UniProtKB/TrEMBL annotation:
It catalyses: O-phospho-L-serine + 2-oxoglutarate = 3-phosphooxypyruvate + L-glutamate; 4-(phosphooxy)-L-threonine + 2-oxoglutarate = (R)-3-hydroxy-2-oxo-4-phosphooxybutanoate + L-glutamate. Residues 8-393 form the Aminotransferase class V domain. GO terms for cellular component: cytoplasm. Belongs to the class-V pyridoxal-phosphate-dependent aminotransferase family. SerC subfamily. Its EC number is 2.6.1.52. It comes from Friedmanniomyces simplex. The lineage of its organism: Eukaryota, Fungi, Dikarya, Ascomycota, Pezizomycotina. It holds the Pfam family Aminotran_5. This is phosphoserine transaminase. The keyword Transferase applies. One of its GO terms (molecular function) is pyridoxal phosphate binding. It comes from the Eukaryota.
Length: 415
Protein backbone atom coordinates (compact mmCIF):
# COMPACT_ATOMS: atom_id res chain seq x y z
CA UNK A 1 0.00 0.00 0.00
CA UNK A 2 1.04 3.60 -0.43
CA UNK A 3 2.06 5.67 2.57
CA UNK A 4 -1.18 7.68 2.49
CA UNK A 5 -3.34 4.55 2.53
CA UNK A 6 -2.04 3.45 5.93
CA UNK A 7 -2.76 4.74 9.41
CA UNK A 8 -0.20 3.32 11.80
CA UNK A 9 -0.96 2.87 15.52
CA UNK A 10 2.13 0.87 16.50
CA UNK A 11 3.84 1.37 19.84
CA UNK A 12 7.06 2.59 18.36
CA UNK A 13 9.14 3.49 16.57
CA UNK A 14 6.25 5.85 16.03
CA UNK A 15 5.48 7.47 12.68
CA UNK A 16 6.74 10.99 12.07
CA UNK A 17 4.77 13.85 10.57
CA UNK A 18 4.98 13.58 6.77
CA UNK A 19 6.50 17.06 6.21
CA UNK A 20 9.34 16.17 8.59
CA UNK A 21 10.00 12.96 6.66
CA UNK A 22 9.95 14.82 3.36
CA UNK A 23 12.43 17.40 4.61
CA UNK A 24 14.54 14.61 6.16
CA UNK A 25 14.93 12.88 2.84
CA UNK A 26 16.27 16.15 1.38
CA UNK A 27 18.75 16.89 4.16
CA UNK A 28 20.06 13.33 4.08
CA UNK A 29 21.26 14.08 0.59
CA UNK A 30 22.31 17.67 0.94
CA UNK A 31 22.09 19.60 4.19
CA UNK A 32 21.16 23.24 3.58
CA UNK A 33 22.97 23.37 0.23
CA UNK A 34 26.28 22.49 1.83
CA UNK A 35 26.79 19.70 -0.70
CA UNK A 36 27.07 17.24 2.22
CA UNK A 37 24.35 15.11 3.79
CA UNK A 38 23.33 15.63 7.41
CA UNK A 39 24.68 12.24 8.51
CA UNK A 40 28.06 13.21 7.05
CA UNK A 41 28.59 16.47 8.90
CA UNK A 42 30.83 16.38 11.96
CA UNK A 43 29.05 16.43 15.30
CA UNK A 44 31.50 19.17 16.25
CA UNK A 45 30.78 21.40 13.25
CA UNK A 46 28.97 24.76 13.62
CA UNK A 47 25.99 23.24 11.76
CA UNK A 48 25.72 20.41 14.28
CA UNK A 49 26.03 22.84 17.16
CA UNK A 50 23.22 24.94 15.73
CA UNK A 51 21.01 21.84 15.42
CA UNK A 52 21.75 20.86 19.00
CA UNK A 53 21.03 24.37 20.31
CA UNK A 54 17.77 24.57 18.35
CA UNK A 55 16.49 21.23 19.66
CA UNK A 56 17.42 22.11 23.23
CA UNK A 57 15.79 25.53 23.13
CA UNK A 58 12.65 24.13 21.49
CA UNK A 59 12.29 21.54 24.22
CA UNK A 60 12.80 24.23 26.86
CA UNK A 61 9.96 26.26 25.39
CA UNK A 62 7.61 23.31 24.98
CA UNK A 63 7.98 22.02 28.52
CA UNK A 64 8.98 25.26 30.26
CA UNK A 65 12.29 23.82 31.48
CA UNK A 66 14.08 26.23 33.85
CA UNK A 67 17.28 27.63 32.36
CA UNK A 68 19.87 28.77 34.85
CA UNK A 69 23.33 27.80 36.05
CA UNK A 70 22.02 27.72 39.60
CA UNK A 71 20.63 24.64 41.34
CA UNK A 72 17.13 25.51 40.13
CA UNK A 73 18.16 25.13 36.46
CA UNK A 74 17.98 21.97 34.36
CA UNK A 75 20.27 20.51 31.71
CA UNK A 76 18.97 18.86 28.54
CA UNK A 77 21.14 15.91 27.57
CA UNK A 78 21.15 13.63 24.54
CA UNK A 79 22.42 10.14 25.09
CA UNK A 80 22.45 6.77 23.39
CA UNK A 81 21.45 3.42 24.82
CA UNK A 82 17.71 4.00 24.72
CA UNK A 83 15.28 4.13 27.61
CA UNK A 84 16.88 0.90 28.85
CA UNK A 85 20.31 2.55 28.98
CA UNK A 86 18.82 5.18 31.28
CA UNK A 87 17.46 2.46 33.60
CA UNK A 88 21.13 1.89 34.41
CA UNK A 89 22.25 5.53 34.15
CA UNK A 90 19.78 6.71 36.79
CA UNK A 91 21.07 4.12 39.24
CA UNK A 92 24.75 4.90 38.67
CA UNK A 93 24.09 8.59 38.99
CA UNK A 94 21.68 8.78 41.88
CA UNK A 95 23.72 6.34 43.96
CA UNK A 96 26.81 8.43 43.34
CA UNK A 97 24.97 11.62 44.35
CA UNK A 98 23.64 9.92 47.47
CA UNK A 99 27.05 8.61 48.51
CA UNK A 100 28.76 11.86 47.58
CA UNK A 101 26.49 13.78 49.97
CA UNK A 102 27.06 11.23 52.70
CA UNK A 103 30.83 11.24 52.27
CA UNK A 104 30.84 15.02 52.52
CA UNK A 105 29.10 14.84 55.89
CA UNK A 106 31.17 12.02 57.37
CA UNK A 107 34.18 9.92 56.53
CA UNK A 108 33.88 7.27 59.25
CA UNK A 109 31.62 4.24 59.15
CA UNK A 110 30.61 4.75 55.54
CA UNK A 111 30.28 1.03 54.96
CA UNK A 112 27.55 0.83 57.59
CA UNK A 113 25.86 3.85 56.12
CA UNK A 114 26.10 2.38 52.62
CA UNK A 115 24.21 -0.69 53.82
CA UNK A 116 21.23 1.64 54.35
CA UNK A 117 21.09 2.71 50.70
CA UNK A 118 17.52 2.58 49.38
CA UNK A 119 16.16 3.05 45.89
CA UNK A 120 12.38 3.38 45.86
CA UNK A 121 10.57 1.99 42.80
CA UNK A 122 6.89 2.29 42.01
CA UNK A 123 6.14 -0.78 39.94
CA UNK A 124 3.03 -0.03 37.92
CA UNK A 125 3.76 -1.91 34.70
CA UNK A 126 6.26 -3.84 32.62
CA UNK A 127 8.70 -0.96 32.14
CA UNK A 128 8.98 0.18 35.74
CA UNK A 129 9.35 -3.50 36.62
CA UNK A 130 12.27 -3.78 34.21
CA UNK A 131 13.85 -0.61 35.58
CA UNK A 132 13.59 -1.93 39.15
CA UNK A 133 15.12 -5.23 38.06
CA UNK A 134 18.05 -3.37 36.55
CA UNK A 135 18.52 -1.47 39.82
CA UNK A 136 18.52 -4.77 41.72
CA UNK A 137 21.06 -6.19 39.28
CA UNK A 138 23.38 -3.22 39.79
CA UNK A 139 23.15 -2.54 43.52
CA UNK A 140 21.60 -5.73 44.92
CA UNK A 141 17.93 -6.48 45.53
CA UNK A 142 18.31 -5.67 49.24
CA UNK A 143 18.73 -1.99 48.35
CA UNK A 144 15.66 -1.80 46.09
CA UNK A 145 12.39 -1.02 47.78
CA UNK A 146 9.29 -1.85 45.77
CA UNK A 147 7.12 1.00 47.06
CA UNK A 148 4.16 -0.56 45.36
CA UNK A 149 3.61 -3.49 43.02
CA UNK A 150 0.38 -2.93 41.16
CA UNK A 151 0.03 -6.62 40.28
CA UNK A 152 -0.55 -7.47 43.92
CA UNK A 153 -3.67 -5.34 43.86
CA UNK A 154 -5.21 -6.90 40.77
CA UNK A 155 -4.98 -10.67 40.29
CA UNK A 156 -1.29 -10.59 39.43
CA UNK A 157 -1.79 -8.30 36.44
CA UNK A 158 -0.93 -4.67 35.83
CA UNK A 159 -3.72 -2.19 35.20
CA UNK A 160 -3.98 0.20 38.10
CA UNK A 161 -1.96 2.52 40.31
CA UNK A 162 -2.57 1.51 43.92
CA UNK A 163 -3.54 4.44 46.19
CA UNK A 164 -0.64 6.22 47.91
CA UNK A 165 -1.87 5.21 51.37
CA UNK A 166 -0.88 1.62 50.49
CA UNK A 167 2.66 2.55 49.40
CA UNK A 168 5.71 1.72 51.49
CA UNK A 169 7.99 4.62 50.72
CA UNK A 170 11.31 4.72 52.53
CA UNK A 171 10.75 7.03 55.47
CA UNK A 172 14.03 8.79 56.11
CA UNK A 173 14.59 11.18 53.29
CA UNK A 174 18.36 11.02 53.53
CA UNK A 175 18.38 7.34 52.67
CA UNK A 176 16.39 7.52 49.49
CA UNK A 177 18.73 7.82 46.54
CA UNK A 178 15.77 8.04 44.20
CA UNK A 179 12.02 7.59 43.86
CA UNK A 180 11.36 6.11 40.46
CA UNK A 181 8.20 5.91 38.40
CA UNK A 182 7.22 5.30 34.79
CA UNK A 183 4.80 8.05 33.77
CA UNK A 184 3.21 5.99 31.01
CA UNK A 185 3.39 2.22 30.87
CA UNK A 186 3.49 1.47 27.15
CA UNK A 187 2.67 -2.24 27.38
CA UNK A 188 -0.04 -2.05 30.02
CA UNK A 189 -1.74 1.21 29.06
CA UNK A 190 -1.41 2.79 32.50
CA UNK A 191 -0.57 6.49 32.88
CA UNK A 192 -0.08 8.55 36.03
CA UNK A 193 -2.74 11.28 36.15
CA UNK A 194 -0.16 13.43 37.97
CA UNK A 195 3.36 12.79 39.30
CA UNK A 196 3.64 10.90 42.58
CA UNK A 197 5.40 12.51 45.50
CA UNK A 198 8.80 11.32 46.59
CA UNK A 199 12.33 12.37 47.31
CA UNK A 200 14.70 12.65 44.31
CA UNK A 201 11.92 11.92 41.87
CA UNK A 202 12.99 10.29 38.58
CA UNK A 203 10.54 9.66 35.75
CA UNK A 204 10.60 7.55 32.60
CA UNK A 205 8.55 9.48 30.05
CA UNK A 206 9.59 7.44 27.00
CA UNK A 207 6.06 6.90 25.75
CA UNK A 208 4.27 10.13 26.71
CA UNK A 209 7.04 12.70 26.22
CA UNK A 210 5.68 15.91 24.67
CA UNK A 211 2.03 14.91 25.06
CA UNK A 212 1.20 17.15 28.02
CA UNK A 213 2.77 19.72 30.34
CA UNK A 214 5.12 18.33 32.98
CA UNK A 215 5.89 19.72 36.41
CA UNK A 216 9.63 19.69 35.73
CA UNK A 217 10.54 21.35 39.02
CA UNK A 218 9.23 18.42 41.04
CA UNK A 219 11.71 16.07 39.37
CA UNK A 220 15.39 15.39 39.88
CA UNK A 221 15.48 13.88 36.41
CA UNK A 222 13.22 12.88 33.54
CA UNK A 223 14.26 10.71 30.62
CA UNK A 224 12.79 9.12 27.54
CA UNK A 225 13.77 7.44 24.31
CA UNK A 226 12.99 9.62 21.31
CA UNK A 227 11.26 6.98 19.22
CA UNK A 228 7.67 7.36 20.44
CA UNK A 229 6.69 11.00 20.38
CA UNK A 230 9.86 12.90 19.71
CA UNK A 231 11.65 11.45 16.72
CA UNK A 232 13.71 8.55 15.46
CA UNK A 233 15.28 5.68 17.38
CA UNK A 234 18.85 6.45 18.39
CA UNK A 235 18.78 9.19 20.97
CA UNK A 236 17.50 9.35 24.51
CA UNK A 237 16.70 12.68 26.12
CA UNK A 238 17.43 13.34 29.78
CA UNK A 239 16.31 16.47 31.60
CA UNK A 240 18.50 16.67 34.67
CA UNK A 241 18.32 19.09 37.58
CA UNK A 242 21.49 21.09 38.26
CA UNK A 243 20.92 20.29 41.92
CA UNK A 244 22.10 16.72 41.29
CA UNK A 245 25.01 17.70 39.03
CA UNK A 246 28.42 19.18 39.85
CA UNK A 247 29.17 21.78 41.10
CA UNK A 248 25.88 21.79 43.05
CA UNK A 249 26.11 18.12 43.99
CA UNK A 250 29.21 16.25 45.00
CA UNK A 251 29.64 12.97 43.14
CA UNK A 252 31.16 10.02 44.97
CA UNK A 253 34.67 9.11 44.00
CA UNK A 254 34.75 5.90 41.88
CA UNK A 255 37.33 4.45 44.27
CA UNK A 256 34.94 4.90 47.18
CA UNK A 257 32.04 3.40 45.20
CA UNK A 258 34.15 0.35 44.36
CA UNK A 259 35.30 -0.01 47.93
CA UNK A 260 31.73 -0.09 49.16
CA UNK A 261 30.64 -2.57 46.49
CA UNK A 262 28.57 0.02 44.62
CA UNK A 263 28.59 0.24 40.82
CA UNK A 264 30.60 2.61 38.65
CA UNK A 265 28.95 3.15 35.28
CA UNK A 266 30.33 3.50 31.78
CA UNK A 267 31.38 7.03 30.90
CA UNK A 268 28.93 7.29 27.98
CA UNK A 269 26.04 7.01 30.46
CA UNK A 270 27.58 9.40 32.96
CA UNK A 271 25.32 12.44 33.18
CA UNK A 272 27.98 14.83 34.58
CA UNK A 273 30.33 13.93 31.71
CA UNK A 274 27.60 14.33 29.10
CA UNK A 275 26.43 17.62 30.68
CA UNK A 276 29.95 19.04 30.87
CA UNK A 277 30.43 18.30 27.16
CA UNK A 278 27.00 19.55 26.09
CA UNK A 279 26.15 16.04 24.84
CA UNK A 280 29.21 16.02 22.58
CA UNK A 281 31.46 13.81 24.68
CA UNK A 282 31.43 11.27 21.86
CA UNK A 283 29.85 11.10 18.41
CA UNK A 284 26.23 12.22 18.69
CA UNK A 285 23.77 11.02 16.02
CA UNK A 286 23.02 14.56 14.93
CA UNK A 287 20.42 13.44 12.38
CA UNK A 288 18.27 12.12 15.25
CA UNK A 289 18.72 15.39 17.11
CA UNK A 290 17.71 17.29 13.95
CA UNK A 291 14.58 15.14 13.54
CA UNK A 292 13.61 15.76 17.17
CA UNK A 293 14.15 19.49 16.64
CA UNK A 294 11.90 19.49 13.56
CA UNK A 295 9.14 17.64 15.40
CA UNK A 296 9.44 20.12 18.27
CA UNK A 297 9.41 23.08 15.88
CA UNK A 298 6.10 21.84 14.43
CA UNK A 299 4.64 21.61 17.92
CA UNK A 300 5.80 25.17 18.59
CA UNK A 301 4.39 26.40 15.27
CA UNK A 302 0.95 25.02 16.09
CA UNK A 303 0.91 26.61 19.54
CA UNK A 304 0.22 30.30 20.20
CA UNK A 305 3.23 32.08 21.67
CA UNK A 306 1.21 33.43 24.60
CA UNK A 307 0.26 29.95 25.74
CA UNK A 308 2.53 28.48 28.36
CA UNK A 309 3.69 25.79 28.42
CA UNK A 310 3.63 25.60 24.65
CA UNK A 311 2.77 21.89 24.73
CA UNK A 312 -0.78 22.65 25.90
CA UNK A 313 -2.14 22.54 22.34
CA UNK A 314 -0.77 19.05 21.76
CA UNK A 315 -2.23 17.92 25.08
CA UNK A 316 -5.68 19.03 23.94
CA UNK A 317 -5.30 17.02 20.74
CA UNK A 318 -4.06 13.91 22.56
CA UNK A 319 -6.99 14.14 24.98
CA UNK A 320 -9.49 14.60 22.17
CA UNK A 321 -8.28 11.53 20.27
CA UNK A 322 -8.03 9.27 23.31
CA UNK A 323 -11.41 10.34 24.71
CA UNK A 324 -13.03 9.59 21.36
CA UNK A 325 -11.51 6.08 21.24
CA UNK A 326 -12.30 5.25 24.87
CA UNK A 327 -15.86 6.41 24.42
CA UNK A 328 -16.37 3.92 21.57
CA UNK A 329 -14.92 1.18 23.78
CA UNK A 330 -17.14 2.15 26.72
CA UNK A 331 -20.16 2.45 24.46
CA UNK A 332 -19.76 -1.19 23.45
CA UNK A 333 -18.67 -2.76 26.71
CA UNK A 334 -20.40 -6.00 25.70
CA UNK A 335 -17.82 -6.36 22.89
CA UNK A 336 -14.77 -4.48 24.17
CA UNK A 337 -13.17 -4.48 27.61
CA UNK A 338 -10.61 -1.81 28.40
CA UNK A 339 -7.80 -3.48 30.35
CA UNK A 340 -6.62 -0.83 32.86
CA UNK A 341 -8.68 0.81 35.54
CA UNK A 342 -10.63 3.87 34.41
CA UNK A 343 -8.72 6.23 36.72
CA UNK A 344 -5.33 5.45 35.16
CA UNK A 345 -6.14 4.90 31.49
CA UNK A 346 -3.30 5.98 29.24
CA UNK A 347 -3.95 8.59 26.58
CA UNK A 348 -1.05 7.17 24.59
CA UNK A 349 -1.52 3.38 24.67
CA UNK A 350 -5.12 2.24 24.67
CA UNK A 351 -5.19 -1.43 25.68
CA UNK A 352 -8.35 -3.51 25.38
CA UNK A 353 -9.67 -7.00 24.78
CA UNK A 354 -12.35 -8.14 22.38
CA UNK A 355 -15.01 -10.31 24.00
CA UNK A 356 -12.92 -10.82 27.12
CA UNK A 357 -9.89 -11.99 25.14
CA UNK A 358 -11.56 -14.29 22.58
CA UNK A 359 -8.63 -15.21 20.30
CA UNK A 360 -10.77 -15.61 17.17
CA UNK A 361 -12.62 -12.35 17.73
CA UNK A 362 -9.35 -10.47 18.27
CA UNK A 363 -7.88 -11.97 15.14
CA UNK A 364 -10.97 -10.91 13.21
CA UNK A 365 -10.69 -7.40 14.65
CA UNK A 366 -7.07 -7.07 13.53
CA UNK A 367 -7.74 -8.55 10.09
CA UNK A 368 -10.67 -6.22 9.48
CA UNK A 369 -8.57 -3.25 10.61
CA UNK A 370 -5.69 -4.13 8.32
CA UNK A 371 -8.12 -4.40 5.43
CA UNK A 372 -8.87 -0.73 6.02
CA UNK A 373 -5.22 0.29 6.33
CA UNK A 374 -5.41 0.54 10.13
CA UNK A 375 -2.10 -1.06 11.13
CA UNK A 376 -0.01 -1.85 14.20
CA UNK A 377 -2.91 -2.65 16.53
CA UNK A 378 -1.74 -5.94 17.99
CA UNK A 379 -1.10 -5.78 21.74
CA UNK A 380 2.35 -6.45 23.17
CA UNK A 381 3.29 -10.13 22.97
CA UNK A 382 3.51 -10.36 26.75
CA UNK A 383 -0.11 -9.30 27.36
CA UNK A 384 -1.94 -9.97 24.08
CA UNK A 385 -5.15 -8.18 23.14
CA UNK A 386 -5.33 -4.97 21.16
CA UNK A 387 -3.31 -1.81 21.70
CA UNK A 388 -3.93 1.49 19.96
CA UNK A 389 -0.87 3.67 20.27
CA UNK A 390 -2.11 7.21 20.04
CA UNK A 391 1.14 9.13 19.68
CA UNK A 392 1.40 12.73 18.53
CA UNK A 393 1.88 11.84 14.88
CA UNK A 394 -1.45 9.97 14.77
CA UNK A 395 -3.71 12.46 13.02
CA UNK A 396 -7.18 13.20 14.37
CA UNK A 397 -8.57 11.92 11.06
CA UNK A 398 -6.78 8.57 11.55
CA UNK A 399 -8.20 8.22 15.05
CA UNK A 400 -11.65 9.04 13.67
CA UNK A 401 -11.29 6.40 10.98
CA UNK A 402 -10.31 3.84 13.59
CA UNK A 403 -13.23 4.86 15.83
CA UNK A 404 -15.63 4.31 12.92
CA UNK A 405 -14.16 0.87 12.27
CA UNK A 406 -14.51 -0.03 15.96
CA UNK A 407 -18.17 1.02 15.86
CA UNK A 408 -18.78 -1.06 12.76
CA UNK A 409 -16.99 -4.10 14.16
CA UNK A 410 -18.98 -3.92 17.40
CA UNK A 411 -22.21 -3.61 15.41
CA UNK A 412 -21.39 -6.74 13.39
CA UNK A 413 -20.49 -8.71 16.49
CA UNK A 414 -23.78 -7.85 18.10
CA UNK A 415 -25.85 -8.53 14.97
N1 LIG B 1 10.45 2.83 28.91
C1 LIG B 1 9.27 2.81 28.26
C2 LIG B 1 8.08 3.43 28.89
C3 LIG B 1 9.17 2.20 27.00
O1 LIG B 1 8.02 2.19 26.34
C4 LIG B 1 10.33 1.63 26.44
C5 LIG B 1 10.29 0.99 25.10
O2 LIG B 1 9.28 0.75 24.51
C6 LIG B 1 11.52 1.66 27.16
C7 LIG B 1 11.55 2.28 28.39
C8 LIG B 1 12.77 1.04 26.64
O3 LIG B 1 13.27 1.84 25.66
P1 LIG B 1 14.43 1.38 24.65
O4 LIG B 1 13.86 0.31 23.80
O5 LIG B 1 14.73 2.66 23.92
O6 LIG B 1 15.56 0.91 25.47
Amino acid sequence: PSRDAVSYFGAGPAPLPTPVLEEASKVLLNYHDSGIGITEISHRSPEANAILAHTQSSLRKLLDIPESDGPEGYQILFLQGGGSGEFSAVVYHMVSVWLGALAKKRQQGLDQEAARLRLDYLVTGSWSLKASQEAARLVGAEHVNGVTDARKHRDGKFGLIPPPDTWTQTKTNDDVALTYYCDNETVDGVEFPSPPSGQNLVADMSSNFLSRPVDIRRHAAIFGGAQKNVGTTGITIAIVSNSILPPHAEMADPTLLRKLGLPVGPVVLDWPTIAKNNSLYNTLPIFDVWIAGQVMQRLLDQSPVEKSPRIAEQEAESNKKSQMLYSVLDGHSDVYNVVPDKSVRSRMNICFRVKGGDAEAEKAFLKGAEGKGLMGLKGHRSVGGIRISNYNAVAVAAAEKLARYMEEFAGERKA
